[in-house]
Every structure is written in structure tokens, then in C-alpha cells.
């Protein structure tokens, strides 16, 4: 679609978004007449002769309508109504993968055309605090100039960039410095909130961010500090109820926020978890604090309904954060994003919740590419502008924004969520992670390997997925290559511990020789391809700091494979009488988990997955 944009300011913005919108600027094109009025109850766009008339509540809705009109040939007019005041994403910048400024700008452009109005950057220690040189050191932290650049870029397109930090716990990487722990630590990754120097640190953090962001919003975290006050705080201040400590600390942090003209948002769980539950009649969230209820686990509407009701009893300003699931291992779980988001947002509408986010955590080192979050971003867009979910319409939105169909996106999860699995009961299952990384001689999950082997032809399934991604023309070639390489390596490795053990117990020396001298070298070449694909994609999306962890992990698989081959060949040559590791008894790996077995089990702890011997101290 060719556009003639008379408004100079708007013309510059459209020029920046030409590729994402699917338009070109041309003085002979259709003339765009645009009105932005926040008081409008609806937004609309229509073609009249050679003119496009557009009225919208905000800039992002303007871009949403323009993109729809430009890419839907049969559409001559369109009217939409927002279900929520704000919809956006929260990018995890703290789990080793700090998005590059250039990549973040590309996401901002995409989010703008999706109608997103805010974007949070989750930064535990990855922003510069001048008084704290160890804060984010060697972690790819953002400079003030980078954050200012991103803030201005987002604002120009109508997106409010909001810092999301931690002022109570989750500062584990900062706490890895021993002198920092001794100065600020309570227990685990929790700050000792009884010390004046801790409040000084928090003020330094917030003052630093004030210099970078125009917004009056700041997310101060305060979640999952379940051992609050049980370490050095206990030694110094005595035993106090956790909720009492939390309330006092919150008041102190509020004073700092107000000093720097920030209105705080905080997570809700410390008031409702079994570790520190507060009764609603005993406490109200202070005025001026937005409470953000986070929940991306439930698939039942009634459960969300009950929890929204409980939280509205202690606050009159409630927001909601769901999840775009990319933190179960090496691949995303888009079905879980769907199954948890649909009932959550229905309940949010019932309770009049106005501000929504999709969190995009990167637990365990951001193994899954950042690109995976675009599925959730489009889902939140669709649910912002549609009263009810329709799969065909959502599929059209995915194609519009990503080139990929719903079926294409769901292929990314199918090394975990197999057709034989029961959904939604199996939404957590992540065999691709633990079957890729478990040890060849002492596999923690060999019982699940046997179970999967009996359930389906997993090798055939992975081969089909490998072909699918190798021939997929839509989407990003780098992303497609990663998934192709991943399932290619998994295809060779998933059953290898079982095949090795079977051959050893049967004294099948020919198979053992083949494993040592053919299969393991072939696997290592596949791991090389996987590492190359992940490295290339990582360096497109993120700063290099943190990539070394991915290289360590895949490199360890290769080195261990070479060591296993040596052990096998020593056994075959008679240098050793037995391979002692293969005489270890296998056990149920998750005896205390309510959900166990290959169809429901989830395990993400990298170190214990690879070995039950301690990897680091």
C-alpha cells in the first residue's frame, strides 16, 4: 500500500515502520488523515476514494489499523475496541541473554504495529549503577546511553518503556560476588533489608534508572523472597514475621521511588504464597502502588477468577502478568501460552483489570531463542482487539505478523509435546531438554527414555521435525535452522544411553564399537551444527556475554562423548574388565513430583541433569 502522509511528524514514524507495516511512502499514494484521541471509545480506519481516514485512541492502535488495512486486500474499513488500557511484553534481560539494542529496536517496531502500548525490561543487575562497579559486571549490562536510546526510540512509536528491577530478592548474580553478599546479603539471593547500606544501594539503583527512562512507572519486583529475614537479618534484628519485614521494607522503597518521581508496581505473591500469606483484612496495599498478579500456570478459568477476587480485596489497582512460555528448556511451549492465557484474560476482563503483560522468562540461561516470544506477543495483540478467541482469526494474525501459521509455531514445541501426549496435562513436559543433556553412562532419566521408547517412535518423529524445519520457507531462516539442528542432535542422542546399556548387558561388542567409533563422532558433528546455529542466533538477538554458558554446556556434551568412547574402547580392548558406571542401579528421577513420567515430568536444573556429582561449589 502506498501512502501519502502529510503530517511531517507522523510521516517520519511511518517511514521507520514501512517494512513492519507493509507500506511505502509515495506522494501519489493514498492520503492518510489521522486523528489520535485518547477519549475515543473505538478506533477505526476506512478508505474513501483516494483517502484513508483513521481515528485511534493511541499511536500503537494507529499502527495496528494501518497494518491490517495494508495487508488485508478485501478490507475497506475496520473498527476495533480495546479490551484493556495497556498490553505489552516483559523481556527477560537477566538470564544471561541481554538483548542487543538493534534487536530490541526491531522488536519495538513489531510490538508497535501489534498495538502494544508498553514494554518492560526485566533487569536484575544488567544496567549501569555508577556507584556499584560490580553490579552487572561481565554480564552485558546496559549503559545509560543505550537505555536512553531505547527509551526515546520506543516513545517515538507510542510505546512506554518501563524498567522492571528487583529491590528485595532475585539478585543472585550480583550476590555471586562474595564481598557483595557480606555487605548486602540476608540469605539465598535476598537483600538484608535491615541494613541502612541496603537502602543506599536501592536508592543508587533507582536514581540510575531515573536518568534513563522518561516513564513515571517502575516495577520494583519483591517476589519469591520466601526466606526473607531468616539469614543475617535474623542474626542482627531477631525473628520477625516475614510479612512485617516486607511491609516495612516496602514503605522504605516507596519513599525512594517517590523521591525520584516513580510510581511503583510490585509482584503479588509475597502476600498470597503459602510462605507468607497475609489476610486481606489485616493489610491493604499502599495507595500509589500497583499490584501485579502474575500467573502463567493455570488452565482453569475458575481458578483465575478466585485469585483475581482475592487480590482485589487488598488493592484497588490490580494489573496482571501472564507468560509467553520460553523457559522450559531448549524449545518454547506455545500451547502452554495459549492454554493459560485464554482463561486468564477472560477473568481479567471480568474484574476490570486494565494493564496486562506477558512475561518472557529465560530461566536456566535463555536456551530458547528470544524469537519465541513473538507468538505470545501476537496472542496478546489478538486478545486486545477481539472479544473472543477464534483460532482461524488468530492464525491469520500470526501469519500477518510473523509469516508463520499457528501450525508452524506449534511445530517448535513438538519435540516435547508429542501427538501421543495428553494436553493440557502434558503442557509442562520437556523431554527434549533432559534427554539432550543427561549423561550417556549414568543417565538420570533412563526410565523415561524407556517409557518414551515404548510409547512412540521418537526417532521417526524427530526426523520428520528435522525435515519440516529444513524445508520451511516462511519465517526467519536462522530460527528455522536452530530448530532443525536441535532435533537433528536430539535424534542421535536421546536413546543412546539406553542403546549403550542394552549392548553392554548383552555383551554386544559390535554395537558397542559402532557407538564408540561411529555414533558418538556423528553425534559430535551434529552438536557442532547445533552450537553453530545457536551461536549465530544468539549473536543476532543478544550481547555476547552469556553465550559462553551455552558453549560450555554443548561443549561438555562433546567432551563427555569423547570420554565415553574412550571408556568403551578400553573395555573392548580388554584394558578394563567392566564399565563400572553401567552397573549403577537406576532410580525414579523425580520421586517427590506429583507429575512424573515422560508425559508430564519437567526438569530444568542443568547441573544435576548432567551429573549427580557436584559440578561447581
TrEMBL record:
Record key words, sorted: Hydrolase
Domain Glycoside Hydrolase 20C C-terminal stretches: 408-587
Transmembrane keyword on record: no
All copies of domain Glycoside hydrolase family 20 catalytic, residue ranges: 134-298
Protein name in UniProt: Uncharacterized protein
Molecular function as annotated in GO: beta-N-acetylhexosaminidase activity
BP terms from Gene Ontology: carbohydrate metabolic process
InterPro entries in the record: GH, Glyco_H_20C_C, Glyco_hydro_20_cat, HEXDC-like
Family affiliation: Belongs to the glycosyl hydrolase 20 family.
Claim: Transcription regulation is one of the keywords in the record: no
Record field: transmembrane: none
Amino acid at each position: 500500500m502506498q501512502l501519502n502522509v502529510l503530517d511531517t511528524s507522523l510521516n517520519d514514524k511511518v517511514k521507520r515502520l514501512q517494512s513492519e507495516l507493509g507500506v511505502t511512502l509515495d506522494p501519489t499514494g493514498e492520503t492518510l488523515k489521522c486523528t489520535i484521541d485518547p477519549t475515543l471509545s473505538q478506533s477505526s480506519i476506512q478508505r474513501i476514494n483516494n483517502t484513508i481516514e483513521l481515528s485511534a485512541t493511541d499511536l500503537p492502535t494507529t499502527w495496528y489499523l494501518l497494518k491490517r488495512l495494508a495487508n488485508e486486500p478485501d478490507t475497506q474499513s475496520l473498527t476495533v475496541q480495546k479490551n484493556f488500557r495497556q498490553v505489552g511484553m516483559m523481556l527477560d534481560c537477566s538470564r544471561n541473554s541481554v538483548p542487543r539494542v538493534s534487536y530490541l529496536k526491531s522488536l519495538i517496531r513489531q510490538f508497535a504495529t501489534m498495538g502494544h502500548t508498553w514494554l518492560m525490561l526485566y533487569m536484575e543487575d544488567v544496567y549501569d549503577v555508577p556507584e556499584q562497579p560490580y553490579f552487572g559486571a561481565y554480564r552485558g549490562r546496559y549503559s545509560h546511553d543505550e537505555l536512553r536510546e531505547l527509551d526515546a526510540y520506543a516513545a517515538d512509536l507510542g510505546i512506554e518503556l518501563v524498567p522492571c528491577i528487583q529491590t528485595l530478592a532475585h539478585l543472585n548474580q550480583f550476590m555471586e560476588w562474595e564481598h557483595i553478599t557480606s555487605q548486602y546479603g540476608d540469605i539465598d539471593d535476598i537483600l538484608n533489608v535491615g541494613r541502612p547500606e541496603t537502602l543506599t544501594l536501592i536508592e543508587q539503583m533507582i536514581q540510575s534508572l531515573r536518568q534513563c527512562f522518561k516513564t513515571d512507572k517502575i516495577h520494583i519486583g519483591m517476589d519469591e523472597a520466601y526466606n526473607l529475614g531468616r539469614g543475617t537479618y535474623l542474626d542482627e534484628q531477631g525473628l520477625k514475621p516475614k510479612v512485617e519485614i516486607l511491609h516495612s521494607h516496602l514503605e522504605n522503597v516507596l519513599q525512594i521511588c517517590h523521591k525520584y518521581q516513580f510510581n511503583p508496581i510490585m509482584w503479588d505473591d509475597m502476600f498470597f504464597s503459602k510462605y507468607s500469606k497475609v489476610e486481606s483484612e489485616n493489610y491493604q496495599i499502599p495507595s500509589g502502588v500497583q499490584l501485579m498478579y502474575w500467573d502463567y500456570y493455570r488452565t482453569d478459568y475458575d481458578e483465575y477468577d478466585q485469585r483475581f477476587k482475592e487480590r482485589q480485596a487488598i488493592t484497588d489497582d490490580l494489573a496482571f502478568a501472564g507468560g509467553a512460555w520460553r523457559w522450559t528448556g531448549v524449545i518454547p511451549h506455545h500451547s502452554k501460552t495459549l492454554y493459560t492465557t485464554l482463561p486468564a484474560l477472560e477473568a481479567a476482563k471480568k474484574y476490570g483489570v486494565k494493564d496486562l503483560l506477558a512475561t518472557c522468562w529465560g530461566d536456566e540461561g535463555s536456551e530458547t531463542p528470544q524469537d519465541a516470544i513473538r507468538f505470545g506477543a501476537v496472542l496478546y495483540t489478538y486478545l486486545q482487539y477481539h472479544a473472543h478467541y477464534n483460532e482461524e482469526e488468530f492464525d491469520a494474525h500470526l501469519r500477518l505478523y510473523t509469516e508463520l501459521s499457528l501450525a508452524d509455531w506449534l511445530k517448535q514445541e513438538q519435540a516435547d509435546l508429542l501427538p501421543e501426549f495428553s494436553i493440557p496435562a502434558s503442557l509442562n513436559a520437556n523431554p527434549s531438554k533432559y534427554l539432550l543433556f543427561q549423561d550417556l553412562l549414568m543417565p538420570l532419566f533412563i526410565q523415561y527414555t524407556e517409557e518414551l521408547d515404548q510409547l512412540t517412535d521418537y526417532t521417526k518423529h524427530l526426523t520428520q521435525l528435522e525435515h519440516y524445519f529444513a524445508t520451511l520457507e516462511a519465517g526467519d531462516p536462522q530460527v528455522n535452522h536452530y530448530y532443525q539442528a536441535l532435533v537433528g542432535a536430539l535424534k542421535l542422542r536421546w536413546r543412546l544411553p539406553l542403546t549403550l546399556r542394552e549392548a553392554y548387558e548383552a555383551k554386544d561388542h559390535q554395537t558397542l564399537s559402532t557407538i564408540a567409533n561411529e555414533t558418538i563422532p556423528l553425534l559430535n558433528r551434529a552438536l557442532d551444527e547445533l552450537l553453530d546455529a545457536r551461536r549465530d542466533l544468539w549473536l543476532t538477538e543478544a550481547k555476547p556475554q552469556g553465550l559462553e554458558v551455552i558453549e560450555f554446556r554443548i561443549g561438555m556434551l562433546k567432551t563427555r562423548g569423547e570420554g565415553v568412547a574412550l571408556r568403551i574402547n578400553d573395555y573392548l580392548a580388554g584394558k578394563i574388565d567392566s564399565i563400572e558406571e553401567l552397573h549403577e542401579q537406576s532410580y525414579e528421577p523425580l520421586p517427590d513430583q506429583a507429575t512424573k513420567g515422560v508425559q508430564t515430568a519437567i526438569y530444568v536444573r542443568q547441573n544435576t541433569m548432567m551429573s549427580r556429582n557436584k559440578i561447581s561449589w
